[in-house]
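hiii, so i know i said id send this last week but things got crazy w the move. better late than never?? heres the sequnce for the chain we talked about at the cafe, plus the structure i predicted for it. fair warning i was half asleep when i ran it
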Amino acid sequence: MPIQESNPSPGASLQLRVIPRDAHPISRKDISPNALRVLYRLRENGYGAYLVGGAVRDLLVGGHPKDFDVATNATPEEVKALFRNCRLIGRRFRLAHVVYGREIIEVATFRANVDDGSGDRQLHEGGRLLRDNVYGTIEDDAVRRDFTANALYYAIEDFSVRDYTGGFEDVQNRVMKLIGEPEQRYREDPVRMLRAVRLAAKLGFRIDDATAAPLPLLAPLLREAAPARLFEEGLKLFLSGHAVESFLGLERHGLLPVLLPETTAALKANRSGALRGMLLEGLRGTDARVAADEPVSPAFLFALLLWPAYCRALMALQAQGMHAAEAQRRAADRVTVHQLETIALPRRFSLPMQEIWLLQSRFGQRKRVGRLLAHPRFRAAFDFLVLRQAASDEHAEEVAFWREAQASAEGMPRDSGEAVDAEAGHEGAPRRRRRRRRGPSSLPA
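okay and structure toks below
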């Protein structure tokens, strides 16, 4: 049975706790066969090999991991020599990927915190870890991991769980706790602050007081992280089925103003709370779609997250007397450009996001119905309109009109926009429209 609790800092002496098979719920039937294949081959060739990290953590709380990572004392080159289906990746962290069709088993060599000169480790002057390829023992590896819940090792030879940092008990108590001194660990990698919030939201854990305390103070360090990395972390925060709790966690711990600065300012200025209500309702819908295994578009997600900022920018431009259409385009561009300073939103998502915003004004015009129905972004924009109705009843009539227009268009040929225009009048009564001839007769005199 587990004995002795500890939460050491890097460099402290560790005492191994071995949790035998009959004291934990992990079974080989819940582990990827390919991960087992990698573990057994490494063991058969004389290397230590353990399932590690999130998979062990999730299995302990009854979850179903999608990714299975392996830690070993074999170097990346030695791993590659054992598996023909292996490729080496990474500069900051040198890793081996063993590929089985669409599944990748990530194999990492035990890493150490102290460089004796034989490894490759580089720190930014502010304490941020730029490169970490110093290899060590399993004890070294355990201490350098971020959270105690992620520093658990499943041993294939006796099916036990090895715990060096008190992580087993923290998982049982549903606590996210950093290993080592929190401020130092966050300075090494500021994205750990987002990971703390995301994992707590995903697992239903609380963040340990000492782990949470530095978050508001150190939040500005996130601006030093690569915008592309923050984009990927943003997708994990909001597209993993726990978007609402992730958003609330970012608010609670003072991280939202750095990650989504203009949205935070807009929500604060919106005294009615309607924008925040809409945003949370949209995130609930996102969680529901993920739970139902339905696709979720990053473009729609960021249209939702940045909508408060867009509305605020639009109101400011219109207050200056700018024409509505021009103000909409300017507001969309301004919000997008400013957000790109923090999160590298790719154009394949930022352009559809802007289209979703710009199409909102066309729903109130009810002109060229067929053309709007045929717009490639219509469905996403209409779903966004429905979401806006959840925050304000003023859009109920528009939603009803465009819902009826879609119903009228069902079953019609793809190029029947004129017929849809004819049937989707304000009263819903069909009327014939005369096709206007092109040429001098159709131009102003």
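btw Residues 1-180 form a domain with the Beta Polymerase; domain 2 fold (CATH 3.30.460.10). thought thatd interest u
miss u guys!!
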